[in-house]
Amino acid sequence: MDDHMKNIIDRFCDTKELSREDLHALLNISEEDREYLSLRAREKSISVFGKKIYLRGLIEISCYCKNDCYYCGIRRSNKNAERYRLIPEEIMSCVDMGHELGFRTFVLQGGEDVWYTDDIICSIVESIKKKYADSAVTLSLGEKSYESYKRFYDSGADRYLLRHETADKAHYSMLHPKDMSLDNRKECLYNLKKIGYQVGCGIMVGSPYQSEDTIYEDIAFMRDLQPHMIGIGPFIHHKDTPFANFENGSIHTTLVLLSILRIMFEKVLLPATTALGTADPMGREKGILAGANVLMPNLSPVSVRKKYSLYDNKICTGEEAAECRSCLENRIRSIGYEVDNGRGDHPDIERS
Ligand code: 5AD
Ligand code: FES
Q1: What is the average pLDDT score of the chain?
Q2: Pocket test residue of 101, 328, 333, 339 for ligand 2, highest count of atoms within 8 A of CB
Q3: Domains of the chain: which residue ranges?
Q4: Residue identifier of the C-alpha nearest atom 1 of ligand 2
Q5: With 90 as the cut, is the pLDDT of residue 351 above it?
Q6: Using 50, 70 and 90 to split pLDDT, how confident is the model at 297?
Q7: With contact defined as beta carbons under 8 Å apart, do 83 and 114 qualify?
Q8: Looking at domain 3-340, which CATH architecture does it have?
Q9: What are residue 256's phi and psi, to 5 degrees?
Q10: Is the Cβ atom of 238 under 6 angstroms away from ligand 1?
């Protein structure tokens, strides 16, 4: 391999420091040299987590959304989107099925749907925690006030996912309409941390107008936030959005960034995302081999899966939860890893 590149990677692994020039070099790395970067990242992941992969059961509770993000298929202006929302009883039956299948983390994700009042969310979280004291609840329901986040936490929610999407102000405004702001997004993330959640941020790789500079800012922001989880996957265009004609993000770059993040944040919970699995049939396996340690199979009822369409051609919209579970177990085993059946908290967290 290229000696210069090997030096950059080795120094980065030792110091965790990454200059703009180093980032530029890594983002332009050859496929062959990326193998070495992956190997170094994978070693870090194995040193913290062993060859174990955590599973999260993802329940997509609603595709109604009051926001209008330009990249997203469930944006409110998309008149072609078929909308659905799950009522609390339906959510609970997904959790029941997931628990039966062995999941010990349930992620409730949805568009920003005002039908779910804070009271409703709190009561769903409480019922899950009461019935399944051995399980963690992760929420991914968008931007809320400090008070709402605090109420959800006091009801028993353990973790919260809110991708920041980009830490560059100008870039943020190219991805979102004027009524959304990066400042508010960041404030939400800091509030979540202050309350005590395990917090996840993240970006889409190759989103329209992304550049090496915006990625550099993403990394600087993550260093400051110190998230427990980082969700990244390739941008994949959706035909009914303003970004329908933009190119999809690259798998290669997504894998490079997964490795960079693993090396920089050794203990972070890092999923190989569904978007990565959609962009490449072996994407999730490649993600794990590049340093990811989490997979998030879908537990939503098959009848609604196609409707939760953030981007085109999403995988696993026809499979039952049990099928995805065993499919993933096989995929994990095929690359020499195993499923970890625990809650999978961040190694630094011990919640009483
Ligand atoms: N391609 C890839 N990821 C997307 N998301 C939304 N739209 C797309 C898309 N077109 C991601 C966003 C959001 C998460 C739930 O899904 O980063 O935070
Ligand atoms: Fe859903 Fe493989 S993970 S079918």
Answers
A1: 97
A2: 328
A3: 3-340
A4: 324
A5: no
A6: very high
A7: no
A8: Alpha-Beta Barrel (3.20)
A9: -60, -45
A10: yes
- State in Å: Cα 309 to ligand 2 middle: 16
Rounded distance from Cα 87 to ligand 1 centre (Å): 24
Report the alpha-carbon distance of residue 148 to residue 41 in Å, rounded: 37
Section 247-261 average pLDDT:
98
Q: Can you give the C-alpha Rg of the chain in angstroms?
A: 19
Task: State both tokens at 118.
Answer: 């804070």
Tokens read off for 98: 């997931």
Q: Which ligand is nearest to the CA of 272?
A: 2
Q: Which atom of ligand 2 is the closest one to the Cα of 297?
A: 3
Going from the Cα of 352 to the center of ligand 1, the distance in angstroms, rounded, reads 33
- Distance, CA 304 to ligand 1 centroid (Å)? 18
Measured from the CB, is residue 328 less than 6 Å from ligand 2? yes
pLDDT tens sequence across 151-191? 999 999 999 999 999 999 999 999 999 999 999 999 999 99
Strands (E), the chain: 52-55, 57-62, 105-110, 136-140, 159-161, 198-205, 229-234, 294-295, 338-340
pLDDT tens figures, 300-350? 999 999 999 999 999 999 999 999 999 999 999 999 999 999 999 999 997
Cβ contacts of 90 within 8 Å, gap of 6 or more: 301
